[in-house]
Amino acid sequence: QKEVEQNSGPLSVPEGAIASLNCTYSDRGSQSFFWYRQYSGKSPELIMFIYSNGDKEDGRFTAQLNKASQYVSLLIRDSQPSDSATYLCAVMDSSYKLIFGSGTRLLVRP
Amino acid sequence: GAVVSQHPSWVICKSGTSVKIECRSLDFQATTMFWYRQFPKQSLMLMATSNEGSKATYEQGVEKDKFLINHASLTLSTLTVTSAHPEDSSFYICSASRDGSSYNEQFFGPGTRLTVL
Question: Which chain A residues are Cβ-neighbours of B110 within 8 angstroms?
Answer without folding.
Answer: 42-43
